[in-house]
Design goal:
Layout lengths: L11 E6 L5 E4 L6 H7 L13 E3 L5 E3 L21 E4 L5 H6 L1
Parallel strand pairs: 1-5
Antiparallel strand pairs: 1-2, 3-4, 3-5
Length: about 100
């Protein structure tokens, strides 16, 4: 007799892109986006921190430009959920392409 299994809910927050320690960190309820970024060693020199975004576990995307406000602390204070991913893209160097 087969038993139905329940889907496993994630227990990590992923950090991808231009950070020193790309990893999946255990979800901590009290930590905010900036805390996870620090745990990953912070953005590298090539990081485009103005274009960071979060991919929510439900598939929705929150960009740094869309989360603003003095009352909630902005993007750095964003509360994450298990299964979310923080993406720090690399800065594109347009000047080198144009010189070539």
């Amino acid at each position: 007799m087969a038993t139905a299994s329940c889907p496993v809910s994630p227990s990590t927050v992923d950090i991808l892109g231009a950070v020193y320690n790309k990893n999946a960190f255990l979800y901590q309820r009290e930590e905010r986006l900036d805390d996870y970024l620090k745990r990953a060693g912070g953005p590298t020199r090539d990081a485009d921190t103005a274009r960071m975004f979060v991919i929510r576990a439900d598939g929705s995307v929150l960009g740094k430009q869309s989360v603003k406000g003095l009352w909630n602390g902005g993007f750095a204070s964003l509360r994450l959920m298990p299964g979310d991913a923080i993406v720090v893209p690399e800065r594109l160097n347009h000047g080198t392409f144009l010189k070539g």
